Amino acid sequence: MAEAIISGVLQQLISIIVEEAKQKVKLVVGIDNEVKKLSSNLEAIQAVLVDAEERQVKEKTVELWLDRLKQASYNIEDVLGEWNYAILKQKIEGVDDATVPKKKKVCFFFPSSCFSFKQVSLRKDIAIKIKEVNDNLDDIAKQKEMYGFNAIRKAEKLERVQTTSFIDVSEICGQDDCKSILIHKLCASSEQHLPIISLTGMGGIGKTTLAQFAYNHDMVINSFNKRIWVCVSEPFDEYRIAKAIIESLGGSTKDLSELQSLHQHISTLIQRNTFFLVLDDVWTEDYKKWEPLYRCLMNGVHGSKILVTTRKESVAKKMGSIDIINVQGLSDDECWLLFKRIAFFGRPFEECERLEEIGKKISGKCKGLPLAAKTLGSLLRFKKRWEEWKRILGSKLWKLEEIEEDVFQPLLLSYNDLPYTIKRCFLYCAIFPKDYGLGKNELIKLWMAQGYVKEEEDKAMEIVGEEYFDCLASRSLFQEFRKDDENNVIGCKMHDLVHDFAQFLNKNECVHIEVDDSKEPLLNSFNSEKVCHVMITVCDEDLFPDSIFSLRKMHSFLCNKNDIRYSLPFNILPKLFGELTCLRALSFSPGYMESLSEDIPKEVGKLMHLRYLNLSGLGMRKLPGALCDKLGNVLDVEKVKRSEIKNQKSLIGLLLNFEKKVDGRERRNEEDEVLLEILQPSLNLEKLRIWSYRGNTILPNWMLSLTKLRHLILNGCSNCKYLPPLGELPSLEYLNIREMDSLKSVSNEFLRKENDGTSSSSVFFPKLKRIEFWSMLEWEEWDYEITRIGEKEEAMDTMSDLTELGRTPVAVISAGVKSILDIPRIPVHFQYL
Fold first, then answer.
1. CA separation for the pair 552, 146 (Å, rounded)
2. Is the dihedral of CA 127, 129, 131, 134 positive or negative?
3. Which parts of 670-780 are beta strand (E)?
4. Helix/strand/coil percent split, the chain, to 5
5. d(Cα 290, Cα 340) in Å, to the nearest integer?
6. What is the largest CA-CA distance in the chain?
7. How confident is the model over 630-664, as pLDDT tens digits?
8. How far is CA 18 from the centre of its chain?
9. How far is Cα 96 from Cα 106, in angstroms, rounded to an integer?
10. Residue 544 in contact with residue 588, Cβ under 8 Å?
11. CA–CA separation, 474 vs 419, rounded Å?
12. What CATH code is assigned to 190-326?
């Protein structure tokens, strides 16, 4: 963890120095020696951190030294963040002399009234803080000499992994006896009215995977009318569990706030049904929490079953299990089979043969744990040289007895092999509760807000963040991937043991807590100097933990709701903005939260480090004007012209929504056409969505210049009678056209512009993989004709990359189209409305 932070701080310091050099103006004068000393100390400490982090597990004094180093590093990050902010402010305001303050007050994204401090005062403050953090780091650097650390450096190059290379490891290797016994017990008749069967065993042994196998087995599906899956985890939340059961049964929890009413609704829904309920990852031994739910489940038809997975056999006994199946580890052969399937994926036969002997020795260290085999297999899949495999086999981490779980040893090996940038991204995930559905895009934005993701060469930060996500997924540190209609990964979960491992490493720097009347003291139990990232889940109405405001060093605050209607106390936002000034990310989840004010408080101006602000869950309607000006208002043509979206080189996704009215009236068609022409994006754009456009044509001069555009949606372009010549877009992979109500016919204009004699291309939609048309109610004909170039007849190559994904055709037409003529190689599926 310390290695990741120090490396990030060094990168941040270097970028600030480079930025000052670019501007040829020094913001903070007289600190050159301090900066050199700071950089030198950081580099010296960085050189020994690999050894220090391996030793901290067995040596308490090393652990304490690293803790002190981490806190110092966070303080340095804050100071560097202020310095970077001041440089950017100087750049915006056009200051050309670092020693002369600017008299004119200029907005910097927030209203100018937010900034009462003077430029000179800010510079002096930064200089003082740099001296303070440097003195502290100097002392820490001197302390390291007493430990005799070895200087160990490793390559930080990231193996680029494409999403398509993910391996499906959901199939169970071995456990044949457990599988057959479990299926038999679930499908056989029982004298007990509602029997409970339990799978017990240590973390990572495969309990959840076995439960999933049973849940989806044909015999089980055919044996029950209803199947319900609930991840219980810790704590045992009776309300959340009851609501999850109701939703799985197709019921609604609206207006059900009391536990008694929830249980009564469950009882009603299951009567006259045989059901199979899986309660995964149960921890509580408190029978009083379990008994009321069990009683209401008794209303189901005889033959219903409950399956529980738990690490603790005592939990299974407390819940009244009639059968307890203790899940054992894989045999050596089964463990090797699983390990080999992942580690040797895609390798040449000769390479596999050369690595087989050492591979068996490594898989033997997994102690039969499937998660360990998956993790090590995923790690070694990227190691080509025998020497790299030998280093893993001989690692000192195998000998660490103090590690809490055996499976943490292979996880540590995989973690230590990550580049420092991705280590921080992984550890950040401990902020979320167990079994939390991680949204890929949201997670990447949060990483970016913390400065964990930087632009690389010509790659935007979002692309780099996707590569980091793919790297963690390929190492089996993420699982249960959610995908969209285009088969792109949009979310995932962490195995509960991997989550435990992340918490074990960050030592309460990332904290999740459920807030109700009984949980308030827990926040006070954390060391306020160590907590950096907090997510709270609000379980009761009108509750907000005052102890949050004691965590002054907090970098992330994410507020989640637990399916309740929640009103945020009116004074909370000003207090958050005014006191938690180190925040990089602040988010209130969408849903049931409400704010008593429509405006963002002016105190937001104090959050100079803030990079991610999500208040969508509060229903706010007004943003400070200066906060919005940079994005431009599509109702004001002059503002749009000044916005120069085309210069935003990092912009890779854009939604243009033309729904709004101007002064209460509908815009004219030609106004939309003018706006669309002005809203020219960067040529780096990869995704474009256009909604509710009223123009008669949809072909701005810039559209066919988007050579990197992969994803295009045209939704509700109701006045367009013709499709634009999208066939000329060389990178387009996905096209979705909806509700184009005036379109009646599609012909060659869909492929290219009218031939002006200068183009000889006969290849159209060269990379298109999926095309969809929905609700095209007036569309009657799709007809391609053979055309000529001069005297020469042209043979067209159209949509040659269209393929079928599974059983789903990639060309989907939902309309009343009456004829489709001469469209080669396109599998088409009709859905008539």
1. 32
2. negative
3. 687-691, 711-715, 734-738, 745-746, 763-764, 770-776
4. 40, 15, 40
5. 42
6. 88
7. 447 455 566 666 666 767 776 778 888 887 555 55
8. 31
9. 15
10. no
11. 14
12. 3.40.50.300
464 and 445 in contact (C-beta within 8 Å)? no
State how far the Cα of 364 lies from the Cα of 353, in Å rounded to an integer: 17
Distance CA 209, CA 330 (A): 13
Q: What letter would DSSP give residue 417?
A: T
Neighbouring C-alpha atoms within 13 Å toward the C-beta of 328: 9
Give which of 272, 188, 260, 181 is closest to 225, Cα–Cα: 272
Query: Structure tokens of 308?
Result: 């529980």
Q: Which helix (H) or strand (E) holds 600?
A: none
| Strands annotated E in 673-728 | 687-691, 711-715
Pairs from 455-458 (Cβ < 8 Å, separation ≥ 24): 455/650
Interatomic CA distance for residues 613 and 600, integer angstroms:
11
> Does residue 430 sit in helix, strand or coil?
helix
Q: Give the three-state DSSP class for 210.
A: helix
| Rounded Cα–Cα distance for residues 609 and 82 (Å) | 7
User: What is the bridge-based pairing of β-strands 711-715 and 687-691?
Assistant: parallel
For the chain, domain boundaries: 2-147, 163-169+331-496, 190-326, 507-626, 627-830
Contact between 223 and 276 (Cβ < 8 Å): yes
Q: CA separation (Å) from 283 to 241, 276, 309? A: 14, 20, 9
Q: What is the value of pTM for the model shown?
A: 0.65
DSSP structural state of residue 405: S
Q: Which amino acid is at 800?
A: S
Tell me the one-letter amino acid at 470.
D
Residue 480 has, within 13 A of its CA and on its CB side, a CA count of 13
Are 692 and 668 within 8 A, CB to CB? Answer: no
| Distances 138 to 37, 83, 148, 530 between C-alpha atoms, Å | 8, 20, 17, 20
Encode pLDDT of 77-113 as tens digits: 888 888 877 777 776 555 444 434 443 333 333 333 3
d(CA 207, CA 315): 14
Angle at 467 between CA 464 and CA 471, to 5 degrees: 145
pLDDT band for 622, please (50, 70, 90 cuts). Answer: low
Q: Say if residue 574 is preceded by a cis peptide, omega within 30 of 0.
A: no
